[in-house]
Amino acid sequence: MASTPSSDQTTASSSPMHDALVLRMDKAARTLLTSATAGEDIQAELQTMCLPITALWCRILRFDPAVPDWPDRDRYVVPSAAMLPLLAAMLRLTAPGAQELSPTLEYGQHPAVEIAAGPAGQGMAAAAGMALAEQQLANRYGRSLVNHRTWVLARDSDLATGVALETAQLASRFGLNRMAVLACPSPLADPADFSDSLARFHASGWSVRKVNAHDLGAIMNALQAVLRARKPTLLACIPANSPAQPDMPAEDELTGPWSPTARRGSSIRRSWLRRLAQHRARADFERDQMGRSRHTMREDWGRLWRQTMRSTPDGSSQQAAFAGLRSLALLRQDVSILAATSSTSSSRSANLPMPFGHAAQPCGIQEHGMAGMLNGMARHGGVLPCGVAGMMTIDRMRSALRMAALMRSKVLYLLTDDGLALSDNGGGWQPVEQLASLRAMPHLAVFRPACAEETFACWQTALNWPEGPAMLILCPHPPPHRTGRRSGHYGGPSHGGYLISCGQGLRHVTLMASGPEVAIATLAGQHLAEQGLNVAIVSIPCWEVFAQQPAAYRTAVLGTEGLRVGIEAASSFGWERWLGTDGIFVGMDDFGISAPANAVYERFGITAGAICQKVLARLLASGAQKGLSPSAPSPSRLEDLDMSLTITRL
Amino acid sequence: MASTPSSDQTTASSSPMHDALVLRMDKAARTLLTSATAGEDIQAELQTMCLPITALWCRILRFDPAVPDWPDRDRYVVPSAAMLPLLAAMLRLTAPGAQELSPTLEYGQHPAVEIAAGPAGQGMAAAAGMALAEQQLANRYGRSLVNHRTWVLARDSDLATGVALETAQLASRFGLNRMAVLACPSPLADPADFSDSLARFHASGWSVRKVNAHDLGAIMNALQAVLRARKPTLLACIPANSPAQPDMPAEDELTGPWSPTARRGSSIRRSWLRRLAQHRARADFERDQMGRSRHTMREDWGRLWRQTMRSTPDGSSQQAAFAGLRSLALLRQDVSILAATSSTSSSRSANLPMPFGHAAQPCGIQEHGMAGMLNGMARHGGVLPCGVAGMMTIDRMRSALRMAALMRSKVLYLLTDDGLALSDNGGGWQPVEQLASLRAMPHLAVFRPACAEETFACWQTALNWPEGPAMLILCPHPPPHRTGRRSGHYGGPSHGGYLISCGQGLRHVTLMASGPEVAIATLAGQHLAEQGLNVAIVSIPCWEVFAQQPAAYRTAVLGTEGLRVGIEAASSFGWERWLGTDGIFVGMDDFGISAPANAVYERFGITAGAICQKVLARLLASGAQKGLSPSAPSPSRLEDLDMSLTITRL
């Protein structure tokens, strides 16, 4: 094989012998495809794409059947489950021992299935994320270690969705010229739709080519052109004339090892292994690949945080989280940040400097494409993808976020501009149901820290969250006063929920809150304590982590008696989990309004005063039967009150 | 004014007098704009767009300041709050009495603000929906009654989002040549991004023109070309040279009535009123405008439903809902259906016949654009927009759905292919957290009917839901057995939740479910009743409607004693609302899997057998202290069991 690594993929010169191999394999693949149970239209698309994909696999793709997941392999992405039979056919023909693979292959069944099938367009975005990860790793380690491409077998529907068109813009902006998409028109759709898709990709800065899907020479020329392209490429494979029905190949052809193809891949991988063994950054590369950090990372990060905290002890959670991301990026070179314009709320421009320096790639307002790319970066490996975007844009990113959770990918999100404070633009920009909708998603951890100190603990817990993606929801305004732990505190934010403060003896009231509302709860607690009530203040920055704590811990934090009050500038949906059926929720039952922040909080009754009134009214109602008045009850009388305040919660 | 209605907008021939009016008004508008508190970039965009918008308002726009919401007005859509000062300036200059309008105008403050500001691109989609509604109403009533246009003052960010690009495709496919978008490049962004946007719109079948934003003659020519265009138009207003700073106009110029403009609008409206008065379909038109139906509608619809029910009494909720939509479209001509390809799950093609006949417009896989268009159709008035799409695509439509809820727009959704049954494509297609995420949204009503009979009641309730959008979540498979009301039933599906059946005396177990799981609950209930337990079966098709029932009704349905069990093939999030803290939830704690439907239900333990086991295990644990065995307890011994089964729920 070629000794210069960059030429691995450009040696695919055509020869009659090579062509014969491709055509034989194509014939065998078509036979395998006919056994796939697919609709007529899908079958037609599979047959159209068979020769181009076979040529790609035989002559171009960096793929070693023996080690299908080696790091410098080409990524071959199949966004739609309908197209997976073609991947199954390729694996069966090239990989010894893969003969038994089901034609309806699925994510998790073979390492060559790079992503789970998802909504149209998600695979395009994931592929762009892989190409971006490749670009970043190549910049870090050089082409001798990182020299692969990302190929996508797309359907026309993948090209026409909004997320695909956002991805097209981002791929062009980032110069992802090692990304190539192969697609064919759907036989059922209007051909003009497909042409329009090609034109839109061209308009987005892509190299767009049409090729006769049944002409091997033209296909090889087109694939060679892809290898030389300076832009991301879309290769439209047009079924110009109907292919001849393949003769049934002999049994040995179907099960043969297709050794030339396998030998090519194996040879490329072994020469890569030799280069890796001699590479001076080998240890770093392998650590990145495993997603590990240096063993001193935790300690170093803590030191940097403490420095930050000393300089801005009363900063907002957003400031603190950004500082944490900056220092994380200093300590871990695999951190890769994509930031949407919405995260720099003061401006709408994509070209303003990001608060994380050069480590962040600006993604403009293409948040959905960005979120899909983060998934691909995580699946690629070697990078730790972090997305930064405005809290309200999470609605747009939801399909992509779900794919991250479904694939249990380690993707970190920093969502900025949470809270009611940024209300100049009307109610449309104030989150209401977003928190509940995120907490309902399996495997996702949602953190909503109250202050800079909690942000540190949440950042660390999010980084170590083992199940899938994690997000920090951040407020740009510092809390009006310190909310840190006081007398009677118990546990800490890394447990998901903890006691900030609690008096001695039976609790009358437990105020629970998250994020900016913890400061309000603390203030309300002070007022109520002045009334002689025994008040506990609980911060629950992360429901998912708190729910995983032992029951005894949760009980100690939430208490077993007294009135429970939940405070969050959001929908009440789901809060019964912590409040029981008798608790009070103080939050938003409607969309926000345009007004200064304080006025919005007042409109929804999320103020210390309103909370105290609600609590006292409820206690008065409970205590009325005993003739007690809650207005300034003396501590001694409160002992009498206790029984009436105790609400049985089995 | 012109007597032929279609020439209303084409009489804007240029003359020195007209030009002088526009230029004077432009000068005044610029002065008003300088008082708007906007960033430098926004201010620059406002100034760039000032002359084109002023020319539009003075010479083209069908707008009567005296009656700004008359039905045949041009729609002038401002998607971004940042651009509203220009609308405020136009209103202040043209409308007597509008001088006190705040420059930071908002939705709800003036009828000329057609939509609430939302995420980038939503306004584009809403405008396309308005243009589609205009097209449909013009087809129904003719150009003498419906002859207006939709104008959008967009920003570059509105053009670059995925939803805008999906909208561009749909607007072109539907031939919305009465939609025109005016936009200018952002001074902070790369000019190439704006050019790419223009190219993408051109590739989507739009007419794209560039015009010097400071050349009135060129602007008037371009606007005239828009009036003649056979495609949707994008007019890019380029600030070719810096405008001269306007002299401060005299006070009377700022507050003057700009009578020529106002007179033009008033004259157009009055001639329209004369045509309406003589129109033979006047009553229909006015009823459509008020969103009312004929007073016999309810009865007629019921009759058609009963016919359907007789022919397919055991059909799926999806079949029933489609039949209901078909008959609704027969009875109400204002019903307008947009259907995504995902709603016809057997095929991916946009060109297949829809199950609703010619009444449905096919929207392919551009679900997000479609959802945004539904909002615009609702805001336009005269049509009742119904969207049909696959359940899983709701994640993509979420930003648009939220705008409908925020504007309390009457938009109906039919979401198909709910449930675990369609699992061939892997876990990504099985809803898990979607139900919770939708129930958390204010003003939205989510219906999940169990059977054809419930579907009828839910359809009617959804149609009358007063707060905003409503959706029916539908399963394509008929329930395995009848789930209708039996002995002890109470209430009905139109109450949101009701008792399907209940024995006499103290309840031991209340099984609650929705949708396809009601049949499973019914079966489990039969098994448990055979064990001598007193079981109540509750169907909760709509939480929002059920929560609005009187507390006494809810208590009668849910019962006050016994074990509560929630059964839903979805996330448990939020179910504590009905289960309390001691209930059992049977559902999904993870994403779905690929397997035949029955296997998926078994994997998650959502079977009658597994539910019975869980219930008996819990009752055994509760009863253990009393030495009771729940295996086949005799009815007499159950009386003893009662106390231990009674779980206090204050």
UniProtKB/TrEMBL annotation, chains A, B:
Q: Name one GO biological process term.
A: pentose-phosphate shunt
Task: Tell me which cofactor or cofactors this protein depends on.
Answer: thiamine diphosphate; Mg(2+)
Q: Which SUPFAM superfamilies match?
A: Thiamin diphosphate-binding fold (THDP-binding) (SSF52518), TK C-terminal domain-like (SSF52922)
Every Transketolase-like pyrimidine-binding domain range: 315-481
PANTHER family hit by this protein:
TRANSKETOLASE, TRANSKETOLASE 1-RELATED
Species name for this entry?
Acetobacter syzygii
Identify the InterPro entries for this entry. THDP-binding, Transketo_C/PFOR_II, Transketolase-like_C_2, Transketolase-like_Pyr-bd, Transketolase_fam, Transketolase_N
Q: What is this protein called?
A: Transketolase
What Gene Ontology molecular-function terms does this entry list?
A: metal ion binding; transketolase activity
Q: Which reaction does this enzyme catalyse, per its entry?
A: D-sedoheptulose 7-phosphate + D-glyceraldehyde 3-phosphate = aldehydo-D-ribose 5-phosphate + D-xylulose 5-phosphate
**The entry's keywords:** Magnesium, Metal-binding, Thiamine pyrophosphate, Transferase
Q: Which residues cross the membrane?
A: none
Q: Which family does it belong to?
A: Belongs to the transketolase family.
Give the UniProt entry's GO cellular component terms.
Answer: cytosol
